[in-house]
């Protein structure tokens, strides 16, 4: 059944039944505004991200359930980068009236499932008819008063770190463009590939479609006072390191041989004649955390014995040198590239 067959207000009621009744909010869906009571001793964090069909995703490569998960996940990553705790979400959906109602059902189930992993409830939003499918999530989070980790605190002499491994999300996008598709738990292939490559492609596409918000890692770094500055890697390591350095008024050098490249990214890059390092530097959408710290490396590594890896990849310098990559042959080259919504080549 199409959305136009039931109209806006019946659709709102349908969404309301999909979402659990909020436990944290004073008011949820049904009033002109949702209402939250701030937690004593905490500052509010507010973030929003918009995903647009044929710009940030394509209907042919992502299910509505995974689209819901990704729309929530990219916002959760912003809260992680500030060292905060996510709390509640507002969702704005612009959608063609001829779309099937089941698409909306699955979209909101994805939003619900991703949010539930971090105790986030959808407490309101808006609907509109549109020729182009667009989904925007505004997320409310909290952090202890004065303890938000910003992009502007990096200091010369500190080390530069990243969580996890890089490049898999970009590799997943390459595979999707080549015709591979992620079904429930396996990959649909346009031609025969080995079992091991098929698994690498599955992992890469999964990372592209459903990023992993590093909420727990961001909280640990913030609460311990480890991170002096932090940013999530949405546009690519090269671009996001440049953002951090600009806000901090510093320069940086990272080492090629220290950048942790995901094994699936390397395998997919080799299959499609791509450079794994380029996927890590310019690919984007890894949604790992990039942070700076003066702490002893052994103490930082010890914070995450059973969780995600953390890797020191470079050093912060005084302003005036820009952001550079030290190649394995000793040459230093300027870092460049990364995703830009408005850049046209």
UniProtKB/TrEMBL annotation:
<feature type="binding site">
    <location>
        <position position="78"/>
    </location>
    <ligand>
        <name>Mg(2+) 4</name>
    </ligand>
</feature>
<dbReference type="GO" id="GO:0000287">
    <property type="term" value="F:magnesium ion binding"/>
</dbReference>
<feature type="binding site">
    <location>
        <position position="78"/>
    </location>
    <ligand>
        <name>Mg(2+) 3</name>
    </ligand>
</feature>
<feature type="binding site">
    <location>
        <begin position="125"/>
        <end position="126"/>
    </location>
    <ligand>
        <name>ATP</name>
    </ligand>
</feature>
<dbReference type="GO" id="GO:0009229">
    <property type="term" value="P:thiamine diphosphate biosynthetic process"/>
</dbReference>
<keyword id="KW-0547">Nucleotide-binding</keyword>
<keyword id="KW-0808">Transferase</keyword>
<feature type="domain" description="PurM-like N-terminal">
    <location>
        <begin position="30"/>
        <end position="143"/>
    </location>
</feature>
<comment type="pathway">
    <text>Cofactor biosynthesis; thiamine diphosphate biosynthesis; thiamine diphosphate from thiamine phosphate: step 1/1.</text>
</comment>
<feature type="binding site">
    <location>
        <position position="49"/>
    </location>
    <ligand>
        <name>Mg(2+) 2</name>
    </ligand>
</feature>
<dbReference type="GO" id="GO:0009030">
    <property type="term" value="F:thiamine-phosphate kinase activity"/>
</dbReference>
<dbReference type="Pfam" id="PF00586">
    <property type="entry name" value="AIRS"/>
</dbReference>
<dbReference type="InterPro" id="IPR010918">
    <property type="entry name" value="PurM-like_C_dom"/>
</dbReference>
<dbReference type="InterPro" id="IPR006283">
    <property type="entry name" value="ThiL-like"/>
</dbReference>
<dbReference type="InterPro" id="IPR036676">
    <property type="entry name" value="PurM-like_C_sf"/>
</dbReference>
<dbReference type="InterPro" id="IPR036921">
    <property type="entry name" value="PurM-like_N_sf"/>
</dbReference>
<feature type="binding site">
    <location>
        <position position="108"/>
    </location>
    <ligand>
        <name>ATP</name>
    </ligand>
</feature>
<feature type="binding site">
    <location>
        <position position="47"/>
    </location>
    <ligand>
        <name>Mg(2+) 4</name>
    </ligand>
</feature>
<comment type="function">
    <text>Catalyzes the ATP-dependent phosphorylation of thiamine-monophosphate (TMP) to form thiamine-pyrophosphate (TPP), the active form of vitamin B1.</text>
</comment>
<dbReference type="InterPro" id="IPR016188">
    <property type="entry name" value="PurM-like_N"/>
</dbReference>
<keyword id="KW-0460">Magnesium</keyword>
<keyword id="KW-0418">Kinase</keyword>
<keyword id="KW-0784">Thiamine biosynthesis</keyword>
<dbReference type="GO" id="GO:0005524">
    <property type="term" value="F:ATP binding"/>
</dbReference>
<feature type="binding site">
    <location>
        <position position="232"/>
    </location>
    <ligand>
        <name>Mg(2+) 3</name>
    </ligand>
</feature>
<feature type="binding site">
    <location>
        <position position="151"/>
    </location>
    <ligand>
        <name>ATP</name>
    </ligand>
</feature>
<feature type="binding site">
    <location>
        <position position="49"/>
    </location>
    <ligand>
        <name>Mg(2+) 1</name>
    </ligand>
</feature>
<feature type="binding site">
    <location>
        <position position="285"/>
    </location>
    <ligand>
        <name>substrate</name>
    </ligand>
</feature>
<feature type="binding site">
    <location>
        <position position="32"/>
    </location>
    <ligand>
        <name>Mg(2+) 4</name>
    </ligand>
</feature>
<feature type="binding site">
    <location>
        <position position="235"/>
    </location>
    <ligand>
        <name>Mg(2+) 5</name>
    </ligand>
</feature>
<feature type="binding site">
    <location>
        <position position="339"/>
    </location>
    <ligand>
        <name>substrate</name>
    </ligand>
</feature>
<feature type="binding site">
    <location>
        <position position="78"/>
    </location>
    <ligand>
        <name>Mg(2+) 2</name>
    </ligand>
</feature>
<comment type="similarity">
    <text>Belongs to the thiamine-monophosphate kinase family.</text>
</comment>
<feature type="binding site">
    <location>
        <position position="126"/>
    </location>
    <ligand>
        <name>Mg(2+) 1</name>
    </ligand>
</feature>
<keyword id="KW-0479">Metal-binding</keyword>
<feature type="binding site">
    <location>
        <position position="32"/>
    </location>
    <ligand>
        <name>Mg(2+) 3</name>
    </ligand>
</feature>
<dbReference type="Pfam" id="PF02769">
    <property type="entry name" value="AIRS_C"/>
</dbReference>
<feature type="binding site">
    <location>
        <position position="48"/>
    </location>
    <ligand>
        <name>Mg(2+) 1</name>
    </ligand>
</feature>
<feature type="binding site">
    <location>
        <position position="56"/>
    </location>
    <ligand>
        <name>substrate</name>
    </ligand>
</feature>
<dbReference type="GO" id="GO:0009228">
    <property type="term" value="P:thiamine biosynthetic process"/>
</dbReference>
<feature type="binding site">
    <location>
        <position position="234"/>
    </location>
    <ligand>
        <name>ATP</name>
    </ligand>
</feature>
<feature type="domain" description="PurM-like C-terminal">
    <location>
        <begin position="156"/>
        <end position="318"/>
    </location>
</feature>
């Amino acid at each position: 059944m199409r959305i136009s067959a039931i109209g806006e207000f019946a659709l709102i009621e349908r969404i309301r039944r999909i979402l659990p009744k909020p436990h944290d909010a004073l008011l949820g869906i049904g009033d002109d505004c949702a209402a939250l009571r701030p937690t004593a001793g905490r500052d509010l964090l507010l973030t929003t991200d918009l995903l647009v069909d044929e710009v940030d995703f394509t209907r042919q490569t992502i299910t509505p359930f995974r689209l819901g998960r990704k729309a929530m996940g990219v916002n959760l990553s912003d809260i992680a980068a500030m060292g905060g705790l996510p709390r509640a979400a507002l969702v704005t959906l612009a959608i063609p009236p001829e779309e099937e109602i089941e698409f909306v059902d699955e979209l909101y189930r994805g939003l619900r499932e991703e949010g539930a992993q971090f105790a986030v409830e959808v407490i309101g939003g808006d609907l509109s008819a549109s020729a182009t499918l667009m989904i925007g999530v505004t997320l409310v989070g909290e952090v202890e008063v004065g303890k938000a980790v910003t992009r502007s605190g990096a200091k010369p002499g500190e080390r530069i770190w990243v969580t996890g491994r890089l490049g898999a999300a970009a590799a997943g996008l390459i595979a999707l463009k080549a015709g591979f598709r992620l079904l429930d738990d396996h990959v649909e292939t346009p031609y025969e590939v080995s079992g091991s490559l098929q698994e690498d492609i599955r992992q890469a596409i999964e990372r592209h479609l459903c990023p992993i918000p590093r909420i727990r890692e961001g909280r640990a770094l913030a609460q311990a006072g480890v991170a002096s500055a932090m940013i999530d890697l949405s546009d690519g390591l090269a671009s996001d390191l440049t953002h951090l350095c600009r806000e901090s008024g510093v320069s940086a050098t990272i080492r090629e041989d220290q950048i942790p490249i995901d094994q699936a990214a390397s395998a997919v890059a080799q299959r499609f004649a791509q450079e794994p390092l380029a996927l890590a530097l310019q690919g984007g959408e890894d949604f790992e955390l990039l942070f700076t710290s003066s702490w002893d490396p052994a103490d930082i590594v010890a914070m995450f014995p059973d969780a995600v890896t953390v890797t020191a990849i470079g050093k912060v310098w005084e302003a005036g040198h820009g952001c550079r990559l030290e190649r394995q042959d000793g040459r230093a080259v300027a870092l460049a590239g990364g995703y830009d919504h408005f850049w046209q080549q």
